[in-house]
Design a protein that fits this description.
By secondary structure, the protein is of the alpha/beta class. It is built from 12 helices and 8 strands. Bound molecules: 7,8-dihydrobiopterin and fe (iii) ion.
């Protein structure tokens, strides 16, 4: 049964997935027994590829939480992960048929229920897929839900999404979600690290996000971020760097209304653009005290 188009980022996608058997809150059942040996093997290959890439590139909290997924040998049961996740930060994984309406998505986040897509990409999509699939959601998003401050920020996103009235506000909140939860970078004592799920679940974008001269890496600046457009079908041209998950929580928790009003009066900024005075933080030569 095809579902209605869903806004994903700044695009509208008619998602694939079986929406005929989901509940009123858009959740469904993870029929773990229906996954084929080939799907378990494909999932394990995706995990192995990213596990070889993330050390030294993903933030420590992500790497430290990965063992909780118990995903090395194939697709885990969400029910097996949930007791550990619930104990850590009060979150739980809920199964969804795929992309769901923004209102349902934010309602789940505000209740500390993270929607994980039940279908896995096809072998021919091993290197790239536009829609979030089981691997993107589980491997990319779930580990950081074990990190308390990030977990609080994710619930604040949900609450903010529910408060956001009208399309403009949701468009701005979608940009914040995109440039942080999906494609965010974080400063660490050992240099730039990745926390965005869209990067951590992608083979090519891990290197691109940290080192590509084609990308811009800007200090997190919420008013500037809310004006920043992005594309969902290519590596990002702009990344924002937070100093801590506390900063992300502080930026996400308050009422956004005044920021939306301010953003609506200013021109949008194309992905990859640098405004006068902005520098790419990854290449900025650290100032040395004289
Ligand atoms: N639905 N299942 C699912 N997963 C997402 O990441 C998702 C969604 N619906 C809407 C959406 N993301 C984006 O529009 C967010 O910016 C809200
Ligand atoms: Fe995602």
């Amino acid at each position: 049964m095809s579902s209605v188009p869903v806004t994903y980022g700044e695009s509208s996608i008619t998602p694939r997935g079986d929406y005929a058997h989901c509940n009123a809150d858009s959740t469904c059942v993870q029929h773990w027994e229906r996954y084929t040996p080939e799907e378990h093997a494909l999932f394990a290959r995706l995990v192995a590829r990213q596990m070889a890439l993330v050390p030294g590139r993903a933030c420590d909290a992500f790497v430290q939480a990965l063992p909780h997924l118990q995903a090395r040998n194939g697709i885990p049961r969400f029910a097996d992960i949930n007791p550990r996740l619930k104990a850590a930060t009060g979150w739980e994984i809920v199964a969804v048929p795929g992309l769901i309406a923004e209102s349902a998505f934010f309602a789940l986040l505000s209740a500390r229920r993270f929607p994980v897509t039940v279908w896995l990409r096809k072998p021919e999509e091993f290197d790239y897929i536009v829609e979030p699939d089981l691997f993107h959601d589980l491997f990319g998003h779930v580990p950081l839900l074990f990190e308390p401050r990030f977990a609080d920020a994710m619930q604040a996103f949900g609450a903010g999404g529910l408060k956001a009235q009208g399309q403009h506000a949701l468009q701005y909140l979608a940009r914040l979600y995109w440039y942080t939860v999906e494609f965010g970078l974080i400063r660490s004592t050992k240099g730039l690290r990745i926390y965005g799920a869209g990067i951590l679940s992608s083979a090519g974008e891990v290197e691109h996000s940290l080192h590509s001269p084609q990308a811009r890496r800007l200090r997190f600046d919420l008013p500037r971020l809310l004006r920043s457009r992005y594309r969902i079908d290519a590596f990002q041209a702009t990344y924002f760097i937070i100093d801590s998950f506390q900063q992300l929580f502080d930026a996400t928790a308050p009422d956004f209304t005044p920021l939306y009003a301010q953003a609506a009066t200013q021109p949008e900024i194309e992905a990859g653009a640098l405004l006068p005075g902005e520098v790419d933080e990854a290449v900025a030569v650290p100032t040395v005290a004289i």
